[in-house]
């Protein structure tokens, strides 16, 4: 009897100890759960962004050449300076041209005197003809001489005008507002009219960016866009991480390039602060007209598994689940998900950096921050943000 009582007591004690051990293990497991930031996904109306590479071009560019041949007498600008239309840049030796002008002026005075004499003789011939004191042939000869003198004077006056233009052209002026390059030919050198490039000037108040959109993309995303729509675009320069420059489309070519299947488009950017230079490499972004709602998650929440993209969602019992996703456009630090998630999903915000699927976690609920990030692109340039 005593042995039976002892066996029962041992069994009860063993079960009690086992139960205490299980509770202790569960408590320890709860204490060691990984605290993970989780958040409910965002759902936003978005537009697809399209990115193109280009080089900036000045709306106006001039290879400055003299309109007369001569010797450079003076350079009147500082290389690299901004110049205005009409500013004097080069002066050629004007003395040969001034001498031609003076000579023609003297010839004109002589021609005027000869014309006056011819007029006088023609009038006399008319009076003598009335009295039949001169033959008709002589009278016609004097009238012919008058017309010749008039023509000679007109020819000399035209030559004088051309000579005065040549004299004026010895002062080579800027034909546009812009920035002047270096002087290619310096003082004392002879230059040829229409051949010698003295310097170059590019306008700098605006910059053009030409880029080519393939026909399919144009028809799917931009079919309703016209130059008058002033479709907004943003631009990023080389070495920059943000699209800081706002512009608009102001030209669309009138036909598709049959060789490349693309349409040439031009965007214009104001350059009031002189931060843009012609020839610079740049990236252009513009948004499609169509707006649709998409699930939005942080870029860092997306993991890569060989060739698949996935997101860890919080399932029943706070256990992480593996979900394959298809990613869409990037918006600042956020990314659109086109398939794989729904609006009620809660995700691990920092992705699979420290956790993996099937792992229980201790969730720390946070909110996905989308402040200052543009998901749609309007025609109002103030709506465009650098974070794009």
From TrEMBL:
Pfam families given in the database record: Beta-barrel_RND, BSH_RND, HH_MFP_RND, RND-MFP_C
Gene Ontology MF terms in the entry: transmembrane transporter activity
Domain Multidrug resistance protein MdtA-like beta-barrel: 229-289
Alphabetized PROSITE patterns for the sequence: PROKAR_LIPOPROTEIN (PS51257)
Keywords noted in UniProt: Coiled coil, Signal
Domain Multidrug resistance protein MdtA-like alpha-helical hairpin, chain residue ranges per copy: 102-170
Subcellular location, record wording: Cell inner membrane
Signal peptide: 1-18
Residues annotated as domain Multidrug resistance protein MdtA-like barrel-sandwich hybrid: 62-197
Membrane topology of the entry: Lipid-anchor
A Gene Ontology BP annotation from the UniProt entry: response to antibiotic
Annotated GO CC locations: cell envelope; plasma membrane
Ranges in coiled-coil conformation: 101-166
Assigned protein family: Belongs to the membrane fusion protein (MFP) (TC 8.A.1) family.
Name this polypeptide is given: Efflux RND transporter periplasmic adaptor subunit
Organism: Pseudoalteromonas gelatinilytica
Encoding gene, per UniProt annotation: mexE
């Amino acid at each position: 009897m005593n042995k039976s009582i002892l066996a029962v007591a041992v069994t009860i004690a063993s079960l009690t100890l086992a139960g205490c051990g299980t509770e202790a293990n569960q408590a320890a497991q709860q204490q060691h759960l990984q605290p993970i930031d989780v958040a409910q996904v965002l759902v936003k109306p978005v537009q697809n962004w399209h990115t193109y590479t280009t080089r900036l071009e000045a709306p106006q560019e001039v290879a400055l050449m003299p309109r007369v041949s001569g010797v450079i007498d003076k350079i009147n600008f500082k290389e690299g300076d901004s110049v205005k239309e009409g500013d004097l840049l080069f002066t050629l030796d004007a003395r040969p041209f001034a001498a031609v002008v003076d000579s023609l002026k003297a010839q004109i005075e002589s021609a005027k005197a000869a014309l006056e004499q011819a007029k006088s003789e023609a009038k006399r011939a008319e009076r003598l003809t009335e009295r039949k004191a001169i033959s008709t042939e002589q009278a016609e000869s004097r009238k012919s001489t008058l017309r010749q003198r008039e023509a000679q004077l007109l020819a000399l006056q035209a030559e004088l005008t051309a000579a005065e233009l040549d004299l004026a052209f010895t002062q080579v002026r800027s034909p546009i507002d812009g920035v002047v390059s270096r002087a290619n030919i310096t003082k004392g050198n002879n230059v040829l009219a229409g051949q010698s490039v003295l310097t170059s000037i590019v306008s700098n108040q605006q910059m053009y960016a030409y880029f080519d959109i393939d026909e399919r993309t144009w028809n799917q995303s931009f079919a309703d866009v016209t130059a008058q729509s002033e479709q907004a675009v943003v631009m990023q320069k080389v070495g920059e991480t943000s699209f800081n420059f706002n512009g608009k489309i102001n030209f669309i070519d009138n036909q598709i390039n049959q060789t490349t299947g693309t349409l040439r488009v031009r965007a214009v950017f104001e350059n009031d602060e002189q931060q843009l230079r012609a020839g610079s490499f740049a990236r252009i972004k513009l948004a499609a007209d169509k707006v649709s709602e998409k699930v939005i998650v942080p870029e860092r929440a997306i993991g890569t598994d060989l060739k698949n993209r996935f997101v860890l969602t919080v399932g029943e019992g706070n256990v992480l689940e593996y979900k394959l996703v298809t990613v869409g456009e990037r918006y600042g630090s956020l990314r659109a998900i086109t398939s794989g998630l729904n609006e009620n999903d809660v995700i691990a915000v920092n992705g699979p950096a420290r956790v993996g699927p099937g792992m229980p976690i201790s969730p720390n609920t946070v909110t996905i921050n989308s402040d200052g990030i543009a998901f749609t692109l309007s025609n109002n340039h103030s709506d465009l943000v650098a974070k794009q």
